[in-house]
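Side project, low priority. Logging it here so it doesn't get lost.
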Amino acid sequence: MCNMMKRTRPKKHFYARTVLLIAFLAAAVMLGSMMLHKYLARHQTPQGPVLPKPAGTVPVTLFFSATDGSGFIREAREIEGSCSTDISPCIRAILEELANGPLGDLAATIPQNSTFRSIQIQGDTAVIDLDTTLVEGLPNGSSAEMTAAYSMVNTVTFNFPAIKKVQFLVEGRNVATLAGHLQLDKPLEPDFQMEKDQDNSSIDGSPASPAAITAPGGTDK
C-alpha cells in the first residue's frame, strides 16, 4: 500500500507542474499580445478617410476652323470620364467641348450654346440629334453650314475609328439641310482634305491615328 502511494505522488506533482506551466505560457502570450497592440497603436501613423479617386481623363482631338476660314486645324484637348463601356456619352462630351470653342488662335465652328438632344450608335454610324439652337445660331452662308457639319463629323470619326459616318437629325426629325445648303438626306463621311496644318498649308487627307477610343455602341439621351 505504501509503495503504491509513493508511486502516485510524483505523477500528481508532474501533472500540477504541467498545468501551471501551460497557464503561465498562456498568460505570457496574452500579455505579450496586449503590449504589442499598444506599441503598434502608439507608433502607427493614423490613416485619414478614404477619398474617392479622381476621375480619369481621355485625350481627344477637336477640329476647329482656321481664322481665315480656309480649312480645319486640330486642337488637342482632354475630357473627363472614361470611354471604355459606352461611346455615346463620350461623343456628347467631345461635341460639347467642340461647342466651347478653341483655346488657341482658331475660330469656333458651332455656336457655344449648341445642344445635342441624343446620340445613338447604329452600326458604323453615329446618329446625332441636334437642337434648333445650333441651327439657328449658324451664320448665313454655305461655308458656315459646311464648316459646322464637317467639324462635327471629322471630330467624331477621328476620335472613334469604328464610326465611319454621321447622320444629323434636328429635333428628332430627318432634315434635308441644316441651313439650306449642305445635303443631309444621307449620312456624311469625314472629309480630311479640308484640313490645314498649323501654318495654314494643306496636308494629306489621310488622318493620323488618334488615341483610338473604341468601345461598344449605345445611346445617350
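Brief comment: Confidence is low (pLDDT under 50) at residues 43-54, 205-216.
Revisit when time allows.
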